[in-house]
Design a protein that fits this description.
This protein is an alpha/beta fold and 340 residues long. The chain has nine helices and 14 strands. The protein folds into two domains: 159 residues, Quinone Oxidoreductase, Chain A, domain 1 (Alpha-Beta Complex), CATH 3.90.180.10; 150 residues, Rossmann fold (3-Layer(aba) Sandwich). The strands form four sheets. A five-stranded antiparallel sheet has the order 6-3-4-5-7, with no helix packed on it. Strands 10-9-8-11-12 form a five-stranded parallel sheet, with helices on both faces. The radius of gyration is 28 Å and the shape is elongated. The model has no long low-confidence stretch (mean pLDDT 97). Bound molecules: NADP nicotinamide-adenine-dinucleotide phosphate and 3-(4-hydroxy-3-methoxyphenyl)-2-propenoic acid.
Length: 340
């Protein structure tokens, strides 16, 4: 390998299941020359992130797929080598999206200057970058932690999860991580200050969650979906919040997992929230006021399916569950004196 060349890793084929090294190809090309307004930078750090698996597919997705035969995309921290852009000078450290290669050309708008005197420049790919920002907003904006609550996070020692747990502690929550090894468990509890940790590979999730979360779960920052989400749901409290941040358990899956696939919820930032009408008794007057006005104004139509005779109730009820009713099913048990 020559230092005067640009090594690049191309995506050769879309992986089937788990990516293999043979899905990638290492090539060498000439170091490119920056054009007008462009910047040439030399990669110091390349970020590897789970989302990249989603790009290694031509399946329909929220993001455009990586193109076969092209350099794999990815964020880098780099140093400017040559700049034809007045906003950047040789020697500047920058965050960019140059991909899996030694050198990349960028337009000025896609680069952000980094100040190495603030935090280590590599942090821009993690805690002060996209993963850190994910942790911060998923937990605070959707999780809405309150002091004393219990917060569980999967992939708890990872780029996002480790930050989620520590911010939860700053917010005086009980923080519980779910991770894939005892070593990671030890780290999140003894180094990061989580209150408890579960090894997803060796422990029974449901009973371990019950033990680690004696007051139930108020917030679950989900990075995995799948069996972890299933076990967490068995232990959530009234009014729990669940930021759906990632579904890594299914990123390598060739076919959607059994049951509903939650990916569209994440992509569409959709809200699923439990509902119990009893919670609204205090607002009955508000409901009646609107409803009676809409009915009197003819703005609402209402259809009743009236089955006559109490003896027909069982049969009608069975039919209700089979779709035989057409409109609101009621049994007329005796004459209605208000109707002639
Ligand atoms: P990370 O946690 O540093 O690394 C991924 C971790 O996922 C692995 O170390 C592993 O941890 C866990 N994992 C892998 N396969 C799994 C499986 N089958 N079941 C359960 N856990 C599994 O990665 P990250 O960058 O912080 O990303 C974490 C999650 O956040 C990912 O789902 C990612 O897609 C998502 N994310 C979403 C956004 C967004 O905007 N929605 C932004 C950033 C990240 P253990 O073995 O320790 O469990
Ligand atoms: C991920 C990283 C980033 C991910 C999604 C994103 C679902 C999306 C970011 C965006 O489009 O803003 O791991 O997983």
């Amino acid at each position: 390998m020559s230092e005067s060349m640009n090594q690049q890793i191309l995506l050769k084929s879309y992986p089937t299941g788990e990516p293999k090294e043979s899905d990638f190809a290492l090539v060498e090309t000439a170091i490119p020359e920056p054009g007008e307004g462009e910047i040439l930078s030399s990669t110091i750090y390349l970020s590897l992130d789970p989302y990249m698996r989603g790009r290694m597919s031509d399946r329909e997705s929220y993001a455009t797929p990586a193109k076969l035969g092209e350099v794999m995309m990815g964020s880098n921290v780099s140093q400017v080598v040559k700049s034809n852009n007045p906003k950047f000078s040789a020697g500047d450290f920058v965050l960019g999206y140059g991909g899996w290669q030694d050198y990349a050309i960028a337009q000025g708008e896609t680069l952000r200057k980094l100040d190495p005197s603030q935090v280590p420049i590599s942090y821009a790919l993690g805690i002060t970058g996209m993963p850190g920002m994910t942790a911060y907003f998923a937990l605070l904006d959707i999780g809405k932690p309150k002091a004393g609550e219990t917060m569980v996070v999967s992939a708890g020692s990872g780029a996002v999860g480790a930050v989620v747990g520590q911010i939860a502690k700053i917010k005086d929550c009980r923080a519980v991580g779910i991770v894939g090894s005892d070593e990671k468990c030890d780290y999140v509890v003894n180094e990061l200050g989580f209150d408890a940790c579960i090894n997803r590979k060796t422990q029974d999730l449901n009973s371990a969650l019950k033990a680690a979360c004696p007051n139930g779960i108020d917030i679950y920052v989900d990075h995995t979906a799948g069996p972890i989400l299933e076990a967490v749901l068995q232990n959530i409290n009234l009014g729990a919040r669940i930021p759906l941040v990632g579904l890594i358990s299914q990123y390598n899956a060739e076919t959607p997992p059994p049951g509903p696939n939650l990916m569209p919820l994440l992509v569409k930032r959709a809200l699923i929230k439990g509902f119990l009408v009893g919670d609204y008794q205090q607002r009955h007057a508000e409901f009646m006021n609107d409803m009676s006005q809409w009915l009197q104004a003819g703005k609402l139509k209402y259809k009743e399916d009236i089955v006559k005779g109490l003896e027909n109730a069982p049969r009608a009820f069975i039919g209700l569950l089979q779709g035989e009713n057409f409109g609101k099913l009621i049994v007329q048990v005796s004459d209605d004196p208000t109707k002639k």
